[in-house]
């Protein structure tokens, strides 16, 4: 009997894991399935409550995609969002990586305290900051320009990134850098050749976090940018596809699907490194 319990318990464990895995997969895939079906449904099919919302009760249509690409500047918004995301990622890495390393290695016991203080600035709600920042943008003459959000976004991506990377740099033994400097490397060379390659997981986490935040940020982009041609996806889609009390659900879902799929793929490709970056940063 005890010998039989082992294989039975093992089968039950595997079955339980598969049930949990399938449940999570269905739950996570459901929004994408909903957006995909809605993108190709006719409007009459969408608003008929007697129809099955998960099936095509009427023949599919491309009208929603034609409206999205033909009557809005969706492709322009995608290009703006991509450009802003890349530049903000570059600025964030250029500021956060050396700052986190300096606070971890070069400031003694005050480094962690300063890191926590910097992180606390990330917790300030954007609704409290957009008014003074809008005055700053106006004085710089950057109204209705993508440069306004390119310069403002690092104000809340850099603090979080510094806090995250500090935890990652703490997990790297100091002896590794000391050995490199004994072999003739300078502190900066040891940082570039030894610390940065080991910290790829944390750096990728910062990249994904920053780019995702840029694509979904709303308050600053709405405040600083007014013309349609300079909008990002996060602002342009809800503004120009919600006209009064008319919601163009098919086009809205198509826009959400097109913008979310690349980010979802990016998350899945670097999932292991993403989890490692967050767990190391949180634990340390």
Quick summary:
78% of the residues lie in helices and 1% in strands.
Outline the structure in words.
The protein has 284 residues and is mainly alpha-helical. The chain has two domains: 2-61, no CATH class; 70-283, MetI-like (MetI-like fold), CATH 1.10.3720.10. It has 15 helices and two strands. The chain has helices at 2-40, 43-47, 63-70, 74-105, 110-122, 126-140, 146-152, 154-170, 174-182, 187-198, 200-216, 219-224, 233-240, 249-269, 271-283, and strands spanning 242-243, 246-247. A two-stranded antiparallel sheet has the order 1-2. A hairpin with a 2-residue loop joins strand 1 and strand 2. The radius of gyration is 24 Å and the shape is flat. The two termini are 46 Å apart.
Sum up the structure in keywords.
flat; 15 helices; 2 domains; mainly alpha; 284 residues; MetI-like fold; 1% strand
């Amino acid at each position: 009997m005890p010998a039989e319990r082992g294989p039975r318990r093992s089968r039950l464990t595997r079955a339980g894991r598969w049930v949990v895995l399938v449940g999570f997969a269905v739950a996570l895939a459901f929004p994408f399935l909903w957006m995909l079906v809605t993108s190709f449904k006719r409007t009459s099919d969408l608003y008929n409550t007697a129809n099955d919302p998960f099936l095509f009760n009427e023949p599919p249509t491309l009208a929603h995609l034609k409206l999205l690409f033909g009557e809005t500047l969706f492709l322009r918004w995608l290009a703006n969002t991509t450009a802003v995301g890349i530049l903000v990622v570059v600025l964030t890495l250029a500021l956060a990586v050396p700052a986190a390393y300096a606070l971890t290695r070069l400031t003694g016991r005050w480094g962690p305290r300063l890191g926590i203080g910097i992180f606390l600035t990330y917790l300030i709600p954007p609704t409290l900051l957009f008014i003074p920042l809008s005055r700053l943008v106006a004085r710089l003459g950057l109204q209705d320009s993508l440069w306004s959000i390119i310069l403002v976004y690092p104000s809340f991506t850099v603090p979080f990134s510094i806090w995250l990377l500090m935890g990652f740099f703490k997990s790297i033994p100091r002896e590794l850098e000391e050995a490199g400097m004994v072999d003739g490397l300078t502190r900066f060379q040891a940082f570039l050749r030894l610390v940065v390659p080991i910290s790829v997981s944390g750096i990728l986490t910062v990249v994904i976090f920053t780019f995702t935040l840029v694509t979904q940020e709303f308050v600053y982009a709405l405040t600083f940018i007014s013309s349609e041609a300079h909008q990002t996806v996060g602002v342009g889609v809800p503004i120009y596809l919600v006209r009064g009390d008319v919601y163009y659900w098919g086009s809205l879902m198509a826009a959400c699907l097109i913008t979310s799929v690349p980010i979802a793929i990016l998350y899945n490709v670097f999932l292991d490194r993403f989890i490692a970056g967050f767990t190391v940063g949180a634990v340390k």
